[in-house]
Amino acid sequence: MKFLDWFTGKKKVEGNVSVQKVHPESKIPPHAKVMNNQVKPVSQPNPKTVNQKITAPLAKITEFTGATGKKKIGYWVIVFILINSILGSSLFYLPSQGVLSSGAASIIAWIVLFIMASWIMLYIGELITTYPSSGGTYEYCKRAYGRFGSFSAGWLIWLAGNFGMALNIVAAAEYFIPGPPQGGVLILRIVFALVWIIALNFMAFRGIDAGTTMLLVFGVIATFVLLLMTFPSFIDFGAILQGTFKSPFNPAYMQPFFQGVGGVGFFAGLGLSLFLISEAFLGFETVTYLANEVKDPKKLHKPLIAAIIICGVLMSLYVFSSLGIVRYSDYVQDARPFALQALQTMGQKGQDLVVFGMYLVIIGAAAAWPITGGRLIQAMAKDKLFITHFAVLHPKHKSPHRAVYFQTLAVSIFTFVLFRGYYVAWKDPYRTVYLIYVLLSLLVIGMVLLTVPILRRKDPLAERPFKAPFGTIGPIILSLIFAVLIGNWIMIEHAVATTIMSLTASFMFVGIPFYFMVEMFFNPNAIREMNDKLSFFSGMFEKVFYPFSIRRKLLKEMGDMRGKVILEHGCSVGLLTERLAKKVGPKGKVIATDFSLHKVKKADKRTKNIAHVTVHHHPNLKDFTLELKEQVDGIISVGMLSYMQEPAKMLKSMAQHVKKGGEVVFLDFDKFFYIIPNVKWVQSDAQLIGIFKQAGFDVKVERKNGLLWKYINVYGVKV
User: Fold this and answer.
1) Residue 568 pairs with which residues in a beta bridge?
2) Dihedral angle over CA of 67, 72, 76, 80, nearest 10
3) Do 556 and 504 fall into the same domain?
């Protein structure tokens, strides 16, 4: 299999038939042996080509389709959850951003964005009704793009979600604790933020029922606040009570309407407004992760469309009302124009009520991510695209509690970085992070939208209760519009855009090495391919990660090996093999194996002049299938425990070749750089001992600290 096949999940399409290329791990492959510097490569069977037409849709993915809550969510609950998720910071930050870019004409940008958001929601409605699961937007990308593509989508979604929650938490802290972001004020804001982060994640920990109830309450509050701010701007209710009609709205504040702002033309400014406020109707992804909790997922497109229409109408009316109450000069000078609007229409008490309500709305928007993020991490972990430790559900609350713990830590770090920007006096920390968030979000939406035409082609027979119009060309047009908006922003704010693009790219590319590290634990094809690719550096790596002092201890644990037959499982490039050959002597024998053909070649070359050493290529990571002519006196293995895909099966088959009383020594990483823990079965001493015992070995486990990581040492005998 080509490297790019597993990297991209590429499928070979012939006619109207799609055939996935897979490695037949379940079958015992022929093993190439390297002896006397002669290497016979392993032959891999070619995938069969099926010539008949597809008669059934792609197999359903069932890992995340089951509901975890006790109650099914109704449609109006979904509507208010969406209102809460969408509005958020839209109410307090985005109207001013639009006005500062295109003046009063920014209302046009809001209307255009409303139309685009409604169009987008049609395609989300098709996806969510076709593939209702707790995997949400990640699920659609997984089905469309293969492993690397689905990881990339999940990574971008995760980054955008953390940035979005950090923005909302910091905004809430600023409103609750006013003042310059230095000294005691900054410390209080950090404490305030941590309290809310823990509290919101705790609700996610309590399960989907508690989480959705929380989002519902915040959604009702957001709707109330929006109405409270809008209607008094058009109608003076106090004057009506006195028998006269009076409106605070002043159209003169909107003049001149068509104007260039900031030295750019009208249309360029309007495009910049559209880019800056594009985040306003994001948040729909929250509901995609709740699809399996809804009473009738096949009709879920209805509350989606209803919610976006309600949000669009209310937001457009609110922005229009603010333009007739707050002057352009006040928008420029006042950090909270909505508070000024409330003061002018409802007085001081009304302003206090609106400010407090806005604070709750911002917190409510932040509350959506702990639920969404936890389910995203669980879905990726279940697919072995993240640390599998996070795939577990809480036995009582049925929540991805480990993923929630991780999210609590991650969001805290993102929030602290944003606060740090104020401390070191970034020019505008909030806007910097916001622009990164917008870029990431547009990339995510583009990837999700493009899954519609891809899945229509890949999975044409899937049941689609709702089918959006223009499903082939529409997502492409919307993605191109996003590209134009980004390009316009780059031309207008070139200096800032360059920095933001660089920062965004840095965050994106951090995920690539993480992806390979995870794949190296779980994907047999990736394990073999990557070890082959890195075989040139293996000698250098082993000297650093498994220094001579460590290997010397292994040899010591094996005792006197003179004249014995030793099996080295995972010989790599043969550094330890040479020392084993000296220990057993000419009357002994070393049988060395490795799953990487390139490493086997190097090991054979290193030991070609040692007659009592044979090197074998053993690519199977699920079972030990090498036929040995004689039983061995012991097994020594370095770095292979984590690679075993079925450890019980592998160890049991190896034990058949070991003499009674034969010694076994295994060495692996426990916590590599304390970043990625080992696979689950290696993390537990009791589980390790149990698996070895079932295979016929009596062992003890030791975990010892290295310079930057921890080692696992397993010593024992065949009983």
Assistant:
1) 592, 636
2) -50
3) no
- Tokens 């109650």 appear where? 71
534 and 481 belong to one structural domain? no
pLDDT attached to residue 539: 57
Q: In the prediction, which pLDDT does 665 show?
A: 92
**Final residue before a domain boundary, out of 471, 487, 522:** 522
Give the dihedral sign, CA 286/289/293/298: positive
Spatial neighbors of 344 by CB under 8 A, at least 6 apart, are: 248, 325, 326
Q: List the end-to-end C-alpha distance of the chain, in Å, as a whole number.
A: 40
Whether the CB-CB separation of 284 and 82 falls below 8 Å is answered with: yes
For 279-288, give one letter per residue: b (16+ CB within 10 A) or e.
bbbbbbbbbb
From the list 546, 518, 545, the residue with the least C-alpha distance to 530 is 518
- Residue 126 pLDDT > 90: yes
- For residue 388, what are the domain limits? 86-206+247-300+370-522
User: What is the distance between the alpha carbons of residues 339 and 256, in angstroms, rounded to a whole number?
Assistant: 24
Q: Which residues contact 691 (CB under 8 A, 6 or more apart)?
A: 647, 648, 651, 681
Amino acid residing at 690 = G
Nearest Cα neighbor of 448 from 374, 511, 366, 376 is: 376
Closest CA to 576 of 633, 645, 635, 533: 635
d(CA 659, CA 289): 54
d(CA 634, CA 657) in angstroms, rounded, equals 9
- CA separation for the pair 601, 615 (Å, rounded): 9
The per-residue pLDDT for 43 is 41
Residue-wise over 486-507: b if at least 16 C-beta within 10 A, else e? bebbeebbeebbeebbeebeeb
**Which one of 522, 545, 562 terminates a domain?**
522
- How does strand 33-35 pair with strand 697-705? unpaired
Whether 554 contacts 621, CB under 8 Å:
no
Average pLDDT of every residue of the chain: 80
pLDDT tens across 273-300, in order?
Answer: 889 888 887 777 778 888 877 878 888 8
Q: Would you state the structure tokens that stand for residue 312, as one six-digit string?
A: 């669009």
Radius of gyration of the chain (CA): 30
Nearest to 121 by CA among 78, 65, 62: 78
Phi, psi of 13 (to 5 degrees): -110, 125
Say which residue the tokens 């689950």 belong to. 680
CA distances from 2 to 151, 252, 534, 536 (A): 19, 67, 16, 19
Q: How many residues does the chain have?
A: 719
* Residues 626, 618: Cα–Cα separation, whole Å: 7
Tokens 């070393």 belong to 590
